[in-house]
Amino acid sequence: METATSPVRMAESERCTVDDRVTRVAWLNRSTILYAGNDKWSIDNRVVILSNTKTQYSIKIHNVDIYDEGPYTCSVQTDNHPKTSRVHLIVQVPPQIVNISSDITVNEGSSVTLMCLAFGRPEPTVTWRHLSGKVHPPGQTFVSEDEYLEITGITREQSGEYECSAVNDVAVPDVRKVKVTVNYPPYISNAKNTGASVGQKGILQCEASAVPVAEFQWFKEDTRLANGLEGVRIESKGRLSTLTFFNVSEKDYGNYTCVAMNKLGNTNASIILYEKESEEEAFGEEEDEEEEEEEEEEEHDEEKEAGFME
To answer: What's the pTM value of the predicted model, to 2 decimals?
Structure first.
């Protein structure tokens, strides 16, 4: 028995070699007669006779699908005895992902299962891959050759897109993606003390990472600062919140608290606005230091001269 392989949706021809001693010929699929000589018995219009000569008897099946797979028999009747030639048609089907998990949002520490079901002939290999490009802890490369990808105790670093690929070498892989969003409470990554001179602009900055994005509040001691106080502006955008003093006065110096919060929690950081010498004051101090150095040098020279005279 011969084997014929055909990708799905392609046409497949079945050939049968005969000679001039043949009196009758027929093609059968299992026990169903498709053609007897030139007479078509099949009601399937995809099946047509391709050749009926003294040496060859062939049929063709257009738009092959998986239901066409199976044994086909060429039956040849000669004057002496019947002969049969068999071929088994194997239909190959390109990989197709038929069901995949929807995009998902979870809290950090949760367990996540992603599903990717695929069909094809031969059965495709399903592979999961994390596309973030981030560096993971040892042993956590997030490549899985399975329909299900399970992540226990998911972390914020494991958020991003996960790619499912179905491969069986019949056609190009079928690829789909799932986005995983990991919620986590805020943590303040940048909050530095800042100096400003009286009468100048002073800016305090507070940067926090969080999903969902954090909301910010500013406090001085126990008093919450509002965006409308004279000479003060609070501006929060994305991860960054700024507290701006347009004309710093003595009363503005001190300790400020930045609070970052979302539905999973809150955190805070202390930031000091301290007095910074103005350029004029700094320049004046430099001049005083230079004068003191000159006086010390003059005194030293006088002492050396007095010693020489003696």
So the answer is: 0.70
